[in-house]
Amino acid sequence: MNEKNFKLVEGIISRSYVSQAQQASRQRENLLTELLAQRRLPEEGWDDYTIQCVLRDLSQMDSNNFIENVGVGDREARVYSSIVRDRHFGLAHGLGRSGDLLAEQPKAAGSSLISKLAHYLVKDILKTSGLTTVKSCLIVPMATTMTIALVLMSLRQKKPEARFVLFPRMDQKACFKSIYAAGLTPIVIPNVLQDDEIRTDLEELERVIAERGSDQILAVLSTTSCFAPRAPDRIIEIAIQCAKWDIGHVINNAYGLQSTRCSHLIVESSRLGRVDAFVQSTDKNLLVPVGGAIVAACSSQGESILREISQLYPGRASVSPLLDVFITALSMGSSGYKSLLRERKEMFEFCKNKMREVMEKYGEKVLDTPNNPFSMAVTLRNYCIEGSATHIGSKLFTRFVSGVRVVDGKSSKTINGVTFEGYESHIDRYPHPYFTISCTIGITKEDIEGFIERLDKDSQPN
Amino acid sequence: MNEKNFKLVEGIISRSYVSQAQQASRQRENLLTELLAQRRLPEEGWDDYTIQCVLRDLSQMDSNNFIENVGVGDREARVYSSIVRDRHFGLAHGLGRSGDLLAEQPKAAGSSLISKLAHYLVKDILKTSGLTTVKSCLIVPMATTMTIALVLMSLRQKKPEARFVLFPRMDQKACFKSIYAAGLTPIVIPNVLQDDEIRTDLEELERVIAERGSDQILAVLSTTSCFAPRAPDRIIEIAIQCAKWDIGHVINNAYGLQSTRCSHLIVESSRLGRVDAFVQSTDKNLLVPVGGAIVAACSSQGESILREISQLYPGRASVSPLLDVFITALSMGSSGYKSLLRERKEMFEFCKNKMREVMEKYGEKVLDTPNNPFSMAVTLRNYCIEGSATHIGSKLFTRFVSGVRVVDGKSSKTINGVTFEGYESHIDRYPHPYFTISCTIGITKEDIEGFIERLDKDSQPN
Amino acid sequence: MNEKNFKLVEGIISRSYVSQAQQASRQRENLLTELLAQRRLPEEGWDDYTIQCVLRDLSQMDSNNFIENVGVGDREARVYSSIVRDRHFGLAHGLGRSGDLLAEQPKAAGSSLISKLAHYLVKDILKTSGLTTVKSCLIVPMATTMTIALVLMSLRQKKPEARFVLFPRMDQKACFKSIYAAGLTPIVIPNVLQDDEIRTDLEELERVIAERGSDQILAVLSTTSCFAPRAPDRIIEIAIQCAKWDIGHVINNAYGLQSTRCSHLIVESSRLGRVDAFVQSTDKNLLVPVGGAIVAACSSQGESILREISQLYPGRASVSPLLDVFITALSMGSSGYKSLLRERKEMFEFCKNKMREVMEKYGEKVLDTPNNPFSMAVTLRNYCIEGSATHIGSKLFTRFVSGVRVVDGKSSKTINGVTFEGYESHIDRYPHPYFTISCTIGITKEDIEGFIERLDKDSQPN
Amino acid sequence: MNEKNFKLVEGIISRSYVSQAQQASRQRENLLTELLAQRRLPEEGWDDYTIQCVLRDLSQMDSNNFIENVGVGDREARVYSSIVRDRHFGLAHGLGRSGDLLAEQPKAAGSSLISKLAHYLVKDILKTSGLTTVKSCLIVPMATTMTIALVLMSLRQKKPEARFVLFPRMDQKACFKSIYAAGLTPIVIPNVLQDDEIRTDLEELERVIAERGSDQILAVLSTTSCFAPRAPDRIIEIAIQCAKWDIGHVINNAYGLQSTRCSHLIVESSRLGRVDAFVQSTDKNLLVPVGGAIVAACSSQGESILREISQLYPGRASVSPLLDVFITALSMGSSGYKSLLRERKEMFEFCKNKMREVMEKYGEKVLDTPNNPFSMAVTLRNYCIEGSATHIGSKLFTRFVSGVRVVDGKSSKTINGVTFEGYESHIDRYPHPYFTISCTIGITKEDIEGFIERLDKDSQPN
């Protein structure tokens, strides 16, 4: 309530109560003041009530919410359903303008402001995650892999003749397809096995570059977060190669933000070699619904790439994924986000120990994958469930465990004409079948205990 | 409530009241039954209450909402903020899977079902709009123009050597840029003036095709909905040419769904010539927040293009824009949507008459643009506001009128190296300055009267 | 958003957009300014968005919503469930203090303000309903009839020896019981039949007063709104008698606010005779959920009675019913409320005509009850449904028609020792059976047509 | 979703996903099944999502939410504002019928069911609080003290000649006034000082009974929860006296449910003597907004009194306070409620220790009040804040500490003609000034630490 209205209230109820209320009201307003002035994560997360107040304040700045507004344009952000209007807090104009995702909209000062603030908050989140040298970031309302396609398309504009993208093998369809979506051709670089762990074959990578010629190669698309027994790619060494050969380097850091180790690898890669941009999912890292990605860069060169990407997306985009991030960042605060990161790490260790304990009873081994901070894999030599080893994923799913993947290494798959032997293994032939799981942000002790219990129940050595 | 629970309730309150309530509960369930069985718009729109009940029922089908679910995958749709969770009704898994926007998600039966149903409803909406021969449609959670880029990228996969897209001039930046976003090169086809109206130059179009060679040309990108005095493109004739020369044809039908005349043009174009796909905005046509587009096709060939487009988008996408469409379609119902279409048409006539009445006082003329069913333009020879003719748009904006565009035809603009003389005129030199407005779906009598009043107030002949 | 925050926003997005938004934000704030300054119904109803903003602003004034608040009292308005907190907009301290419903609460300036404003708005609603001379009103979070008991208890404090309340017969249990709830003894005054209509027997009333002695009689409890063929009591004449004999007069105006004719009767009664207070339901008149009543008075004496009533209720009361009234009053606005009154009247006439049309087919008559503006009754001589006349109420209820009451005049009922012959007839013996219905505020043409149709369907002359 | 609809869904998405979802949907339905079958607190609290689903299911059972309903009665539960409708989940018919708060409503099976279930849950809560022998309870949508008045009015119906209520002095205005609200006359029984603690004077009580004669005395109104240094009344001994003299006994157990010690006292009082009913607040004990009270009894006789009370309230009452209790009980579950009780007890000890630690620095003493489990009092001999001892309550309030009461024992107050010396001390003359605070359910460590810190800051010995 503004000063004038508070004054009028004093004519209705006792001045001293009003003055107390006014002071309290200012304290809440000061949270917004701090956000606008400092433009970073609040130390403590805001309560839902404050967030809702601020969202209402900001959405009031969009013209479709002006009480006197009349609209005679082609796009006036009229919303038919009150369910829809309410769920978007009256924000309807979307993001960006005239082919620039970051451009302000004259009709939507509130949405524009939310976009700016969300970008500040996300930059702070990236730093908190260990990406201390991050220069710039861009929130894109598209899937991580579609965003990777956009990054590649942007790179291509500078090196239009280069058709190839080198792809250290990572058996995920969407990521592989993003290269085609950008109108480019992938060259898969097979991995190598080091003890239990699957790692990037740097020699093969360099060999292919030399063979094809660096002017034919647009970029390397490397990966950090992945399922064990694959390890994150050796991105520092890749970055050094890319710098050496003047080749682009895009890192798929899908859910890597959750681990300061991944962040450290990216910082070092950017410092010692070339990283054009790295892309991460909003849903997997920030606990929002699927729908957005964050492109970021640690170099000044990367900064200009981000600007280009924002100008490559023609038209207005949904503000919804960015809004989820904005709300969540304010709700977490810096300390809340740090707790989540710490807890995830603890849960990973907790899970690994529990897993060892239980699966050794069945003569199984938790594979030794020291470089993968998210995921663990367990051999499937004896263990089975309801008489089947290969179907334990679906069996567990009917017991309401989601996320277990069984890999027998025997199937092959062809995507856009490229055949992957031992699909899902990230390598043609892995020594044994296994199942793999992940401990990602937000996982709880109850999740892990519930999983281990259902894993153990009714199961027997084969 | 299920039968068993109703039975138990009979032990607590009188059987006859319970039986009445159970019957009423079934009536509401029957609305869903009808939707699932008939898969088209309900005749009458559903009340918000029913919609919310159904959304809850469907979101309960997603694994993250199962009460016994434990998740050990990389993506478990955990949502941190309850504000965020509530605004998405607990739907968090997004759309699509493994690089197919239409693929079902095992973890998200509810979201998958909403997606299927939304597609059925949108197809019915298209038919109701007059697109009676529509074969297939695809809801894409991206801007209209980004979606056009996706369509062009999809076409290019079949004709990889064709680099050019013919673009009958339409001065909207995002649309023009969509061609670049697809990695292609536009060739602008200048328009011609016919009396007051700006129209497609079909001869020039054919001349360019012949000159460049049809194998160099991927597609024509034509436009239906646009600002007067430009008329919708002559898409029937363009379609015939495209068929003749075996060139793709994509129609930007941005807000064309609102006019059965546009729909008729598309139906005829598809019947007599070639139309690969036409793209429209969800926000402009269906009164939802910015964020989505609909690609549709009337031909079997188009149907297969749509499938390819859905497989071109790698990764999972936000379900949010599609959800808005789903809610809105159920809320409108067939009769509600028809009323909106009818009222828009009436308002367009009402506005044109009012405009003539008022602006003739200032010696201005409402331009004669019989082919544009959305927009009208008024000369600016004498009329000015606060002493300025060119700034009447911004002046009116400060009076809370949004959407008025003043075009003086004197500015030129260069986008991606291409220069447009008389930018915003759609033609190098239009005889006089004018302003242009639109009457789009959802516009009310109050909007028009409010606009006319503020237009008239404080203004004077120059 | 406050000035300081708007200033900071100018460092983030363009000043001109911010300034426009600030101006629009002020327009919305001005609605509240107007309410605080004028303290009456807004001419036009507020949109839901504005109402929600204001509710948030006001609830921020309660100490439990202060972000820095710590509480060490016995009542700190902590709320466990966020569902509960949200549905009350964070308002948790209730109404009143130390045995005064109207007292301000130091911990709850916001709730106190809402209470004051709601009282201003309700006073304005009463005036709009035709109660032009109303002096004072009190919103009580209890049933109408419990509130009547409270009024009687309050009157008794001034005339402690008077034990009797005269009650012109009105066959509604709760109302009759309210006399007992106040610890008093009713004397039922039988009605008389005038043509089809049942009316107050003024002579019998005066006879009883004379017989018992006016010092034994605390008050007359009269009724305006009731089911046809009973008419509103002759309250003007009763008021004159009460003045003459120095007896209290309380009017049960349950749903009488909907008819300016009832209001007129009350105004005249207050002018020409004695009316201590009149009581009406919030739910029946203002379309809110059941839970509150309004006591009002047109005389200065009544004003002081209202103060006493507010001090008679010990303890804090639920703010919830008052909050519903506050929201609804702002949402209706003066013009919205007037429309509702007008439409109800039109619907009453519409229904009566339709009813005549249909029921005459069955040889039935709409009873001639010119003094009842809400309700109508129809004879049941031939008409029956599924072979039964007496059960048409329950039959229609299973066809989802609620509110039809069949009165066969044959049953008698004993309440607290008093026997009513021909219970529900308001008279011992009504000439024929009939059914009675009401057209109350908010009724729609669809209601009436739906009712008439189901009444007509499958029915036949007996 | 019902079986039929799930079947239809199988025609749209894969059967195996549907079957999984159906199974999960049943798990949620089973929570309701369990509630309906067992009619007690769930062991674990329900998540908000489940509660909202159940509320929707139940509100669908009320006729105003039937989609085909047409209403022609005087009360059709139409709700004007969608804000209002939504906040009550569409429940609008209120509680009770024809002067019985517990009666089922034909038009509102859902509301009726909620009422029944809420009563079962509250009974279970009472048991969990230690009231193991509770026979019956009644949730009343009125203030605790108004409810006490209702209980007294109900008792009076059986002993109409008894005018007096004995009231062991408790300096709270609303409670004292409740006796007058019931039309009765209080006789205050002064307390005695035992060391630091203020206790019931049993001898004086018996003396007054003997003096007045037990047939003149309707009841004793005793108190459990109160501010230190007053202790809970000696209710066991009072109950024995009441049994001996055949006098009613009503216990004001305002916030006593929070302490198993109070519950134990009530159980023993009921076992060894006479307790007609005990009354407690819903807001103070169950963390809901102000608005309701619970009357309960451990004896069969009490059970019949409760039935009478429910029939004494004429008319329909707001369901809102009961609904808050229903939601909160489901949200807490048995284990959640037990945790709250345990934590409160711990916080009380924590606070007492902290208080001693800090206030001894100022030479103050935490008074020795071993019988009061909620509240503690601290002498004010030296401590002052901003130069004032008497105003530390208001000073702390401006520092956002609510609930501190300073008692200097010097003021006297006259209520309804009765003068209390040393008002707020519960005794004419307490040896020293003090302040008193409470640790009630929901209090957190942050509250206590925040309070102690602000108490200590800027303060100095006098």
Automatic annotation (TrEMBL), chains A, B, C, D:
GO terms for molecular function: O-phosphoseryl-tRNA(Sec) selenium transferase activity; tRNA binding. Signal peptide: none annotated. The keyword Transferase applies. Its EC number is 2.9.1.2. Pyridoxal 5'-phosphate binds at R75. It catalyses: O-phospho-L-seryl-tRNA(Sec) + selenophosphate + H2O = L-selenocysteinyl-tRNA(Sec) + 2 phosphate. One of its GO terms (cellular component) is cytoplasm. Its cofactor is pyridoxal 5'-phosphate. GO terms for biological process: conversion of seryl-tRNAsec to selenocys-tRNAsec; selenocysteine incorporation. It comes from the Eukaryota. TRNA binds at R271, R399. The modification N6-(pyridoxal phosphate)lysine is found at K284. Substrate binds at R97, S98, Q105, R316. Gene3D superfamilies: Type I PLP-dependent aspartate aminotransferase-like (Major domain) (3.40.640.10). InterPro entries: PyrdxlP-dep_Trfase (IPR015424), PyrdxlP-dep_Trfase_major (IPR015421), Sec-tRNA_Se_transferase (IPR019872), SepSecS/SepCysS (IPR008829). It holds the Pfam family SepSecS. It is found in: Cytoplasm. Pathway: Aminoacyl-tRNA biosynthesis; selenocysteinyl-tRNA(Sec) biosynthesis; selenocysteinyl-tRNA(Sec) from L-seryl-tRNA(Sec) (archaeal/eukaryal route): step 2/2. Keywords: Cytoplasm, Protein biosynthesis, Pyridoxal phosphate, RNA-binding, Selenium, Transferase, tRNA-binding. It is an enzyme of class 2 (transferase). Converts O-phosphoseryl-tRNA(Sec) to selenocysteinyl-tRNA(Sec) required for selenoprotein biosynthesis. NCBIfam families: selenium_SpcS. Belongs to the SepSecS family. This is O-phosphoseryl-tRNA(Sec) selenium transferase. It comes from Planoprotostelium fungivorum.
